[in-house]
């Protein structure tokens, strides 16, 4: 399937950068949403993180409202709202309000991840057991959105908002049973065998039950992607976030992004260096022809209906250039 037949979207986590403020990070998210619309991207999504020094995006519904107000055509959504942190009725009300204000433009992506630390989970009034309620919370949320719950969520959504499940572990099976679209990303995309993307998505498609939201299976593949004039330039674009992610897994804190140094990541401790290389290996980056080939292989392997591009860069000009180059790869080719 040519890339021009695949919907292309962006997810921005509102990463902060060393030396700039969180308010500036949020303003850049809105600027990027406007640019994504101009470039022809299909969706622009924001995420939910709490108490993370390197991420300013903690309130996706609020940020969605701001992005929708600054754009006119592009779909705006969450990637995602973490159900363990919220009452399903409140999520339904927020979503339906956004849909009423911006008809036909709002998406709802939900996940089951918990707060990163015990202190964050305590502040959110959730425990580790909250993730186990995801299936029940999702069913309640869908009942509110469809108008079949004992309490009528207002404004009424009438199942107008497409619902996506960010799949981790059992999330794929939950999405299939509920008849929802699935978003799959991370190392599983490049992993062979029964835990790899091909096998997981085959199971999703086999077990899918049609619903009011999706009559048939719908797969969104999420991957870090960077396009530049050279492969090394694209790699350096992804390095700051890969380094921050490695720090979070070794030191327990995702820090603000810093520019990649000339010797980075060779100067990092061994474990962090390995994690950085693993992160880069689970991405698609390079020149335009290299990225086109990599994404075509990814789509062929997963049967994806859409591609959701993730990854934050320290170099904002280079990120904007990458967004532009990537959009060009998905534009219909002249006959």
TrEMBL record:
Question: Its Enzyme Commission number?
Answer: 1.-.-.-
For the protein in the UniProt heading, the enzyme class is oxidoreductase
GO MF annotations in UniProt: oxidoreductase activity
Classification via Pfam families? Bac_luciferase
List keywords of the entry alphabetically: Oxidoreductase
InterPro entries attached to this UniProt entry: Bact_Lucif_Oxidored (IPR050766), CmoO-like (IPR019949), Luciferase-like_dom (IPR011251), Luciferase-like_sf (IPR036661)
Q: Which residues form the Luciferase-like domain?
A: 16-305
Q: Which domain of life is it from?
A: Bacteria
What family does this belong to? To bacterial alkanal monooxygenase alpha and beta chains.
This chain belongs to the protein called MsnO8 family LLM class oxidoreductase
């Amino acid at each position: 399937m040519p890339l021009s037949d695949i919907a292309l979207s962006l997810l921005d986590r509102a990463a902060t950068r060393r030396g700039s403020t969180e308010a500036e990070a949020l303003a850049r998210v809105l600027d990027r949403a406007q640019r994504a619309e101009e470039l022809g991207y299909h969706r622009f999504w924001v995420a939910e993180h709490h108490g993370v020094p390197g991420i300013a995006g903690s309130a996706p519904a609020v940020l969605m409202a701001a992005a929708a107000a600054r754009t006119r055509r592009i779909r705006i959504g969450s990637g995602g709202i973490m159900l363990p942190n919220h009452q399903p009725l409140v999520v339904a009300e927020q979503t339906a309000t956004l849909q009423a204000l911006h008809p036909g433009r709002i998406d709802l992506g939900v996940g089951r991840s918990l707060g990163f630390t015990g202190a964050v989970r305590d502040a959110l009034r959730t425990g580790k057991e909250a993730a186990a309620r995801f299936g029940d919370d999702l069913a309640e949320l869908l009942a509110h959105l469809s108008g079949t719950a004992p309490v009528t969520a207002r404004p009424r959504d009438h199942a107008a908002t497409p619902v996506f499940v960010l799949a981790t572990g059992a999330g794929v099976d939950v999405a299939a049973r509920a008849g929802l679209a699935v978003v799959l990303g991370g190392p599983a995309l490049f992993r062979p065998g029964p835990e790899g993307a091909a096998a997981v998505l085959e199971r999703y498609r086999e077990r899918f039950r049609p619903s009011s939201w999706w009559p048939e299976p719908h797969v969104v593949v999420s991957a870090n992607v960077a396009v530049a004039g050279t492969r090394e330039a694209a790699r350096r674009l992804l390095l700051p976030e890969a380094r921050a992610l490695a720090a979070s897994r070794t030191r327990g804190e995702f820090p603000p992004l810093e520019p990649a140094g000339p010797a980075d990541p060779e100067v990092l401790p061994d474990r962090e260096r390995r994690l950085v290389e693993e992160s880069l290996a689970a991405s698609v980056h390079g020149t335009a022809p290299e990225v086109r080939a990599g994404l075509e292989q990814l789509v062929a392997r997963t049967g994806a209906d859409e591609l959701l591009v993730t990854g934050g860069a320290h170099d904002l000009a280079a990120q904007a250039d990458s967004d532009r180059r990537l959009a060009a790869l998905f534009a219909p080719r002249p006959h």
